[in-house]
Every structure is written in C-alpha cells, then in structure tokens.
Amino acid sequence: MGSHNFETVLMTTDSAEDAYRQACADAAHEDGHGAYSGTIATTYGVRVVPGVKPMTMTEARTVIDKRLDDLNKWDVCEAIPLVAETPAVYERGELVDLTITVPGSVFNDRHEMAAVIAKKLRLKADQIENYEVVRDHLGKEVMTVSPRVRATAPVGKPVKRYFIIDPYYPQLPDFTRGYTSQAEARKALADQVHASCSGVTREKSLEIIAITRRDNGDPLVEATVTVKSVTATLKVHTRKKTAPATRGKDRAGWLFFGWAAC
C-alpha cells in the first residue's frame, strides 16, 4: 500500500484536537473506516506547527511546502491556524483587442503575460480577467513567431555510413552499425530476405540510404532552436474591482496536512 499527501480545512473556533477529531469523523463517514482510506483518518493524532500565528491559506501553503517532507505515513498530521478571509469582488469590464510582442518565455507563462498586458493597457495586474489569441476565418491563431537559432559545428572529420532500411517503417538507425560503402550495403541485402510461414519467399521492398556524421560520432551541426519573440493579437477580458479582499486577525479555522495511507 502507498501514501499521498493531503490537506483538510475545517473552519471552526474549536481547538486543534477537537477539530482534528471532527475532521477524522467526517472523513470516515465519507470514505469509510478502512486503514487505507487515503484521508486524514489514517493519521495518528495532530500537532500544531510551533510558533505560527493565524494566517491565510496562501501563507499556510508556504509553510506546508517547508514541512511536508518531514512527516510520514502512520504518523501525526500537523495543523496551521487560519484566519477568516474573503476574496475580492469584481465585475466584468471592457473587451479589448490588443496586438503585443513579447519574448517566447513570457508568452507561455500566463501570469507573466497578464502582467505585460496590464502594463500595456495601463491597468493593474488583477484587472486582467482573461485573454485569448484571436483566430482568423480559418480558425488559425493570429500570431507571428520569431525563432532564434544557435548552431555550431563540432570538431571532427565527416564520415559517411550506409544503411538498409524498410521504407514503410523508417527510423534513424544506429550510426555505429552502418556499412562503410554502398557496395557493402548492397551485398548485405541478401541477409534481409525472410521466409513466410508457408516456406515461400516473399517480396520485400528495401532502401539503401547514407548518413554523414563526424568521425567521433558527433553530428555535423549541433543546434538549439528557441522562440525569440511572439507577436500576437489578443482579445483581453478586463474587470473592475468592486469590493476588496478581507482578512481577519483571529483564528477562525484549521488547515491539517500530512501523509495519508492509501
């Protein structure tokens, strides 16, 4: 049997021990009383993380990242006190068309893209609800990718090797097993004949190809291709904050975490 990590939240003013017993009872009711239910009920007690004050869920998960690997299956779980919090409230804003050029690394990171878009539109990052690349009438994304190619030629003399391949199942062969001449490869063609189960030789189509590498096995050219920049036309969904997020000060609940047997 294995284990997996878990997080269980119970919003209550009860003590950690009372809240833990309630969380275990709830888990057993939902997933059964088995020793491998994969829930908090498979742990053996609770320990409050020492020295922590009531915090938000986001702050608590930072603590979990630092402590989870020190816990074990069939051990106690740990508890972090939580404050009451409510998220900010937004209403839908304008739909904006925007053409923007960004580095390739930024384009694939939605968090960074949202920050760049917000700056371009002179908005705050949290005012960008979502965005998508505009598509043309054929359904193709309206974007241009500028590549960056870095290529170098390794040191070594070019060497050619010949290979017998099946054109219906082409694949790059092992260079070290190639023939040194076309004549040698032609001679080896006879070794490729196979008999069918009836004992009658069947016809088989083969090809001889040549591949050139360096004499030490390196390729002729080593290259790295990356995306330098992307220019894309976006449809940006904006939003306006109508009520700020709130955060309490006193403990209002518990976040339990640890390893559950499953």
What structural keywords apply?
262 residues, alpha+beta, 4-stranded mixed sheet, 4-stranded antiparallel sheet, 5 helices, flat
Could you describe the 3D structure shown?
With 262 residues, the protein is of the alpha+beta class. 19% of the residues lie in helices and 40% in strands. It is built from 5 helices and 10 strands. The chain has helices at 16-31, 57-67, 104-107, 110-120, 182-188, and strands at 3-10, 46-48, 77-86, 89-103, 128-133, 143-152, 158-165, 207-214, 222-243, 246-261. The strands form 3 sheets. Strands 1-10-3-2 form a 4-stranded mixed β-sheet. It is flat, with a radius of gyration of 31 Å.
Outline:
The protein has 262 residues and is of the alpha+beta class. The protein has helices spanning 16-31, 57-67, 104-107, 110-120, 182-188; strands at residues 3-10, 46-48, 77-86, 89-103, 128-133, 143-152, 158-165, 207-214, 222-243, 246-261. Strands 1-10-3-2 form a 4-stranded mixed beta sheet. Strands 4, 5, 6 and 9 form a 4-stranded antiparallel beta sheet that branches. A two-stranded antiparallel sheet has the order 7-8.
Give me the secondary-structure topology:
Elements: E1 3-10, H1 16-31, E2 46-48, H2 57-67, E3 77-86, E4 89-103, H3 104-107, H4 110-120, E5 128-133, E6 143-152, E7 158-165, H5 182-188, E8 207-214, E9 222-243, E10 246-261
Parallel strand pairs: 2-3
Antiparallel strand pairs: 1-10, 3-10, 4-9, 5-9, 6-9, 7-8
Tally of strands:
10
Q: Give the overall shape, derived from the CA principal axes.
A: flat
Tell me the series of helices and strands, N- to C-terminal. EHEHEEHHEEEHEEE
What is the rounded distance between the termini?
A: 6 Å
Low-confidence stretches: none
Number of helices: 5
